[in-house]
Every structure is written in structure tokens, then in C-alpha cells.
What we know:
By secondary structure, this protein is α+β, with helices and mostly antiparallel strands.
Amino acid sequence: xxxxxxxxxxxxxxxxxxxxxxxLTVLVAIGPPGRAYxxxxxxxxxxxxxxxxxxxxxxxxxxxxxDNTNKPIAAANADRGSANPTSPLSFMYPDFKxxxxxxxxxxxxxxxxxxxxxxxxxxxxxxDTYATRTTPNGVEGNFLQLMECYGDASSGPSPxxxxxxxxxxxxxxxxxxxxxxxxxxxxxxxxxxxxNNPPTSVGGSTITGCDPGxxxxxxxxxxxxxxxxxxSVPFVPLDNPTNPxxxxxxxxxxxxxxxxxxVQAAVTGADGTGQLQFETLTGTEAPSLGCGEIExxxxxxxxxxxxxxxxxxxxxxxxxxxxSSFNAFLYSSPLSASNWAMRxxxxxxxxPVGSFCPIGTQEIQTIGTQIVARAVQSWQLxxxxxxxxxxxxxxxxxxxxTSTQQLxxxxxxxxxxxxxxxxxxxxxxxxGSGGAANLPPILYAPVAISAVGFGFNINESSGFISTPVKLxxxxxxxxxxxxxxxxxxxxxxWAQKNPRDISNDPQFITLxxxxxxxxFSGVPVAPLVTEDHSAINQQIWEWMQSDTAxxxxxxxxxTDATNSVAADPDYMALSPQLGTxxxxxxxxxxxxxxxxxxxxPGGAEEVKHxxxxxxxxxNYDEAASHVVTGNTGGLGNIWDDTLVAPNGSLGxxxxxxxxxxxxxxxxxxxDTADLASYGLIDAQLCDDSGANCVVPSVASLTTALNSAxxxxxGLLQVNPASPxxxxxxxxQVTYAAVDTTRPASDLTAYANLIAYAxxxxxxxxxxxxxxxxxxxxxxxxxxAQALSVVAQLRADAKPSPSPSxxxxxxxxxxxxxxxxxxxTAAASGSVTPAVSTATPTVGLSITPPSAxxxxxxxxxxPVGPIxxxxxxxxxxxxxxxAGGTVLRSSSVARWLRRLRP
Length: 901
């Protein structure tokens, strides 16, 4: 009878041979590898998202009325492009005739930012010496107004379909309030535009720019019931069309200055160019638009980006006067018929919101770190659609402790958690709780590589700042510990000599000479941060602690030659001290001082705390979206006795409006995927001298990955103090942690998800199922590890008689059973991979990726995900076959027996 060891060796040899043969057969069938490029377009950076996608649209104003396929509508554009236009509004054409505009992405739109750039138009500069002309509140002409509108009609949207008109959004000065509203003056009946003798409004004014085209014949009419001297373009919400909003849109229930994405005045620079990030809203953020929601035909509803250029003329023919403080401003709304006729319209194709599947469909739940959210959401859409809703994957971002609780709880809704650390290890951090008790055997499959970054939106009088801001450990430490005067609710003595904000810090100014000092108002310039506890937050503190001067300053306020800023005593008093390892894993709001102005006229106590001034954001997506919209979320200095406070009492501070274009300085902590999605400018992380700066990039993430070391569970971790020369210190590898004691159906579903994530899900692009910008495609070794987990999960789902995985009290972090020779050899990345053959057991040893993968470009993939997987199986199978034969030889067997105790 064969010995047990002989039987095992025989199985290894034959399993390896069968796996290698099967994989080779599939390799031959699919042919040699070809050249593959990122679906997102060759000019788009995979990590920052900068550049154009394949769906980018560039359009000249003369052909700017596009249909729902983004092709020019010949009849609608005929007069614009004519050498002899006949429209009575042709006097406005010269201001726009050379305008060219580019939108970076028009397909597979989600809640994100799209880059809008333009050129060949007169700059937004003052035409007189009126004092306020140097501020955005005084912009008089030559600017753009942008808005999102719903619909798929080939002719384009109606102004009644557009989200615009939020009072107090930007232009809250009384100089030109009309351009931010949906209302304006009506001309006297029968009036026509005349540049020599502009008609007056019903009220007798010429300069307010009455529109001869209003109120028109729209239905519902562009006139509020009972009002005859003014037009009012109603907003007709998609989800409540019988209840249009007239008049003061600030009181409508559909959107306001904090939820609207409208841009009331985008400024053009002195060179005739401009740029901004436009936030696109889905039906989740803007139900009244409904973009991306599934319609009755099973397709997502699409929307429009409308750009209304404004020049130097009003619709009645009045030309802005130079030298007059009152006559040098446009007053009319962009939604009035004549201004609307000057628009450019670009159709936006939306990715489905949520799932293709009907509400109530049973989901396979997954949870985990928010750093992988955009990738998982992309994979969800492809998997759920391909499975025709027979298998539906759900995902919820959750703190690390929640992931541990879910995997430790038998029968919990989620048996897969995305994580950057071993499940349960968060309990060992300072202040940690819970633990690894009663954890099941867990398999870890790498699925994503990304990073945490610091995204900026700086748009000041000099224009949009598109170069990365440089940050040092000291600057970051100061920004996170409330040392700047505007970051404090009151004015303590210890801070009186400190800078107003980070933009006025001498160290910041030295490193960022291209960024003008902010300080337009008393609003904070602190970074937006989340309230959670995580290893990712801890890594940021570890990066700061890697500089000895910063660590000393955090602990005891010791300053050096570059830092004379007084430390906040309330932060130095924290335990453990912020500069001493082990680092904390959150961003506390530790300052205890308050602003107390006593009783208000209504009898309420006017008190402001730190969290009123510096509220947390819920997640990375919210942080990035708030940055792109200039919305800090903090409370201002105006008290209103009619507002309801969080405790239910009357009286509260008025929330700060979003920062004005031209006066914007907002930044926040987020992940590279969300930063890329919203088009924010990443910070460069430098040493404390301001040298050796590194920004998130393909090269810097790859370098950091090559420096990573496996932890006790085999998960790769980047040491932020030593990420390698040119390595980005906050690089992260996300793993799918799977409870191997789950039912076979769950294990199969998890295996399919991981197979897709490590296969087709690593193809860069913006379409559902592809890898969004902000993620570095998995290296060959990490793909191999993921596919080995897939094989083991499938084997565990169809086990031969063998011990079943059991839960342990020690927090076992890898599968405790050896899969049998049944299962799938390799996963191709499809929803239901067709390859099925015997597989060897592949361990979870972690091998740092090869240095040759530090290429500057990620578009080219000479060997695709399917071929990598199959090649790995061929090599592993051949090794097992050869190794099994060698090990069965009599000489080796005798040598092995001698080694036995």
C-alpha cells in the first residue's frame, strides 16, 4: 500500500500536470497577447485622472448646439456660423464667435467632476476703475455660466429643466444680482433689440437688460402668476412636474446654494482661457434632475451640461458702459430666452445609479474600507448586469471595527470585507477596541492599489491653480491641530502671533510662491477630514512623525528654524502624544475654547464650538465633492434666532455659503480615486526642507509598492517613513478578506467577485466594470495571489471529504484547510469563468512586485489579466508536476525520511 506521503506527492504531480495542460490549452485558444490601452483615453493619467477620456468633446460656439449624440444640429447652428447672420440677436455673436470649449468626459458619468476648459474669448477684466471690479462680486461681463439639465431629447433641454438660480451661491453682492436668478425684466410689448436705442423695460429701465423674447410661449409660462412686469422661468422638477418652482428659488424644496452644482460666473483669464471642475449630480444627489436613474426602457436617464457665455451685451442691445459703477454690469438671467439662445449644450451619458436590478432583489453583501468604493461600485455594475440580477452584489463602506464584527459574527449579512489591514488588528492601535476573538479562517485576496492624498481647489484672483501644492510634515501637522487663527472659534492669547491660515504661513509661502495668500474672510482653511478611526489615518500621522522636528513640535511645541508657530496646548495634552509612536488613528478636534457672545435678541446663547467651525465630513467622496464645490460646511459669524439648532432649540449660526470663484481655497483628505474623479489637484508631499517632493502617480505608487513589506498576515504594508526613493508614502493595497466558513453559494459568489476584480476589473477606464482613475492596476504577483484565493474558495465550495474550516479564538488570518484538487484552475475575470480543472494548492506568500513594473504609463498591458492568470497556472502546474516527480524518487524519499525526528 502506498504511504500517505507517496499519495500526496502523486496528487501534487498529477494535479500540477493537469492544471498546466488545461491552462496551456486555453492560452493557445485565446492567442498571443496584443497591445491594449486604457479605455479612458491615452491622454488621461490613471492616478490623477487629469486629461481627456475617449468621450471628451471639443466644440466651437458656432457649432455649439449639439444633439443627444453630441453631433451639431445643422439647422440650429446655421445662423451662428453664417457670414451674414439674420437673427435680431446677431449683435451678440462677435463676443462668442471664437469661443472653443472642451469637456473632458461625456459618457459613463457618475457623481464626479468633469474638467471644462475654454479659450479664445475676451478676458473677464474690469472696464472701469470702480473699486469692486477686482473681486468676483464685481465681474461685469465676459464670463461663463454653467448648469446641469435633465433630458434626452435630440433638440436639447429647456431652461425649465435646469438647476440654476440659487441665491447666495456666489454673487451675493447687490451689484449684479440678476445673473444668478431665474428672473428678469420684461420689455414693453412689441420691443425688438437695438444696439443704438435699446428698448426699455416695463418699469422704464434700459440698463437692466429687459429681454424682448420673454415671457414667450413656454408651458408652464415664464411668468409667475400675478406678475406682469417681470419674467420668471420656472424650474420644473423631474420628480414633481406638476409643482414648478417660481420666483425666489432659494425657497424651493428642490435645490439650494448648498446642494446646487450651478456655476454663476466662471472667470476667463487675461490670456483668454479658463478652466474649472464642474460637479455632475446623479439622481441620488439631485432627485429633481434624476440623472442616471433607470427609466422604463431599462436605460439610465441622461442629462445635459449647458454653458451660457456672457459677453458685453444685454438681450435688449444695451452694451456695458465703461467708467460707470452702475452701468458696467450685466443684470439679466442666463435662462432668459435671448441669453439662452447663445448657449452651448453638451449631452452627458450617465452610468446607472446604483444597480441595474429591481429594488428588493436579494443581495450578496460586502463591506469595508471606503478607499476601494469607486472600484467596487464599478465592478458591481458590470457583475450585476452580466448576471441579469440572478447574483447581485452590494457594498457598504464601513469602519475597520465593523468589518471585524461582521466577519466574527456567524451568519452575518457580510462574509467579505475589503481591508488594508488584517481583520481584527485595529484593536491593537491606541484606543482600539474589540479584537480578533472568534474570527473564522480568513483568506486575503489583493484587489486594488491606491493611495490617500490631499486634494486642493484654489481659484483666486490670479485664476485656477493647477499645479500641485507642496506640503511638508510640519505644515500638515499644523493644519491638523488648529494652530491658525481662522481655525479657532475664539482668539486665545497663545495663537495671536500665529498666521491667519495655512496660506499665510511663511513656510507655506516659501514652498508655494505661485499660490496667493487667502485671507479674504475669516473662514477656516483647515483640511476637510473624516471622523473615523483607521490604519490609513494612522499612516498619515506616521508620515508626520517620520520628521523629527515635527514629532518634537507635536509633543511639546518645540520649534525649529522653519517653524515658529505656537502649538495648540489642547493637542499637546492628548494622550498618547501626537509625536510619539504608536501614532493615533483619527483626526481629533481637541481644542476646547469656545466663542461665547452671550444672549441673542431672541434669548438664545450665542456659543460656537470647534465642531461648529470645523465639522467632519462623512466619507472621502463627500470630502472631495465639498472641495470641488468650495463648500467647507462650517458655520459663519451670523446668528439667526429663527434657525433650529441641532439640539432642537431656536437660534443657531448661519452656515457659510460655498466659497466664491476667485476667492476659493478649500482642501481635504481623500483617496486618489475620489480626488481623480472630481479632478482635484493633488498635493506633493515633501520632506521638511521642502525637497524630495512626490505626488501620487503611476511611478510613485509603484515605487512605494516595491518597498512594501508583508505584515504578520502576509498583507503588504508601505512604511510612510521609507517608501523608497520617489515612492509615495501613503500608498495602500486593499484586500478582499473572505470568511471561509460561509455557505458554498457565498464562497462561489465571493470567488466570482474577486476573479472579476483581479481580471477584467483591472482594465483602466470609465465604463462600468473598468478600473477607475486613482487605482494602479494590480501587478502580476498580486493578481496571482488573488487568483489563488479564487481557486481555494471554489475548491472549498465543492470540497472532497476533508476537515472543514473552523473558527478560532486566535484570529486566524488565512485558510486553515488545504483545498482538494477540484476547483477552478484560473479565473479569467468573467462573471462565470469557463475554465475548470484540477489546481494545486497555492499559498498566500507575498512577493513584492518587480521593479520593471515601475513604468510611467499604465495604458499598455502586453499580457492581459487572463493570460497572466493562465501563465501563472502553467508555471505553478509545471512546478508541481516536476516537483512531484522529483520528490517521489527513491533517493529523495530516503533523504526526507532521515529528516523526520
